[in-house]
Amino acid sequence: MRSRLLSRAHCYLFCLWALLASPVRPQHAGHNRRKDHGGGGGGGGGGEGAVDRPKLLLLSFDGFRWDYVDRVPTPNFRALKREGVKVKVVENAYITKTFPNHYSLVTGLYAETHGIVANEMFDPALNRSFSMETDSVYDPRWWEEAVPLWVTNQRAGGRSGAAMWPGSDVKIHGVYPTRYLPYNASVPFAARVAQLVRWFTAPDPEAVDFGVLYWEEPDESGHNLGPESSLMDVVIVDIDEKLGFLCNELKKAGLYERLNLIVTSDHGMTQLSADKIIELDQYVSRELYTWVDKSPVVALLPKDGRLEEVYSALLGVNPHLSVYKKEDIPEHLHYSHNARIMPLLLEAQEGWTIVQNRSGPMMLGNHGYSNTLPSMHPVFLARGPAFRQDYVKETMRSVDLYPLMCHILGLRPLPNNGSLARVQDLLSAGPSPSPPGGYGYAPAVGSVLGALMVLGFLLVFVRQVTLKQLRPLAVRSREMSQPLLQEDLHL
Ligand SMILES: *[C@@H]1O[C@H](CO)[C@@H](O)[C@H](O)[C@H]1NC(C)=O
Ligand SMILES: *[C@@H]1O[C@H](CO)[C@@H](O)[C@H](O)[C@H]1NC(C)=O
Ligand SMILES: *[C@@H]1O[C@H](CO)[C@@H](O)[C@H](O)[C@H]1NC(C)=O
Ligand SMILES: *[C@@H]1O[C@H](CO)[C@@H](O)[C@H](O)[C@H]1NC(C)=O
Ligand SMILES: [Zn+2]
């Protein structure tokens, strides 16, 4: 345990060093590597002069709330921000659940239009249920109200690679991603990254130009521990290290300077409380409805002719519960015009949980609440030749990402709910922006000397800070491994 902690302390130091030295290093790594690459693998027709197709990798860390980056040292997120762009407030799509939002990111559509309206749904026309936990996921009919970006990319002659993104192992409109991994939560992050790097660096006609990468954390820990738990700090540090690992692999492969990397998430997370429970059994019989989707935005399908009865039984029973008939769902949520949205929608206020009775296990964190709540918002950072550097933007909508990605890839976007104009300021000027460039010899020496001086000071400072953190980290790591907290507490 002790040695693990020491190595974490070393990691901070190393990351700091990387942070300070990076204005010089990427140029180095990218340039030399690319030459090696061209020299070694250039069988297929003198690649050096060929125009590079734009490359784009979209990464989602599930449930990475926007403000997680500020509660522990996250040197790799920080480096990304400095080398690229950050958006402070990203309004995601209602409901703030995993499947709807991941599909919004790659379609630019609200859930009511792309059709993946929840993680659990019922389609009256198909007379079928969908659950992200079952093989229903592989039925293309659920997905085909929209066309995801990987399909559009391929139809335009591009090649796509997908590692575990929701829907990316489904044959949508007759097409799988050019390269993809079938969903398997046990495949480690490093293996997903390695696969994507191989796809991006394959010899020319084989190489993918658009990739999607998904990782299950920190969502799972957020549910089990609650986002306000100090145990989450360790989880966030781990995600930061995973981001660092990815960047390092991209550098080693000579991709880092050529590839556009977008790091975001589907939603945030909020703390639940055992005192904030709404039990439907107290107000209405289970016989009168089918429970379709889970807390905190519960979809109910009343039995034939029982809508009014269920509605009036629930209306006004708890000030922390909103009860909507489908046609009364507020327009700004863009969540009513789809047959998969049920006749009754119950929305809990932030932190509240809706159950039938209290017998089930409780989670300590959840998401799904209104997308107007800051706690539901995801992180957003991006870097690469298409993006400005060291630029912070106040706000965007997650549906705006789709037209932005189409622009980067040179694709014509399908009709969508986003706007390129709203996010155009994230892009660097000019059609083919040069990599962070033109360092002469002298500035390089200057920054190295400057960095060394700062580093000397920080070494002393960080040592103090890290030593202070050692004890709490040790305590947390031990608590992390308590079996109680390892239990899967998903409702
Ligand atoms: C819908 O499917 C169920 C079985 O899942 C069946 O009992 C029912 O009759 C079907 N309804 C219609 C209208 O086909
Ligand atoms: C999922 O991945 C793990 C780890 O790579 C592997 O051991 C397991 O066989 C895989 N499961 C399936 C169903 O492919
Ligand atoms: C709560 O619901 C479960 C089924 O979900 C049921 O088995 C149990 O009897 C219920 N408990 C009470 C106290 O109603
Ligand atoms: C979202 O975009 C789709 C496709 O253009 C359109 O049909 C739908 O009406 C849009 N939704 C909103 C709320 O504008
Ligand atoms: Zn979740």
TrEMBL record:
Superkingdom per UniProt: Eukaryota
Signal peptide (residue range): 1-29
TM segment ranges: 441-462
One Pfam family named in its UniProt record: Phosphodiest
InterPro entries: Alkaline_phosphatase_core_sf, Phosphodiest/P_Trfase
Comp. bias (Gly residues): 39-48
Region: Disordered, residue numbers: 28-48
Keyword annotations of the record: Membrane, Signal, Transmembrane, Transmembrane helix
PANTHER family: ECTONUCLEOTIDE PYROPHOSPHATASE/PHOSPHODIESTERASE (PTHR10151), ECTONUCLEOTIDE PYROPHOSPHATASE_PHOSPHODIESTERASE FAMILY MEMBER 5 (PTHR10151:SF125)
Stated name of the protein: AP3A hydrolase
Source organism of this protein record: Muraenolepis orangiensis (Patagonian moray cod)
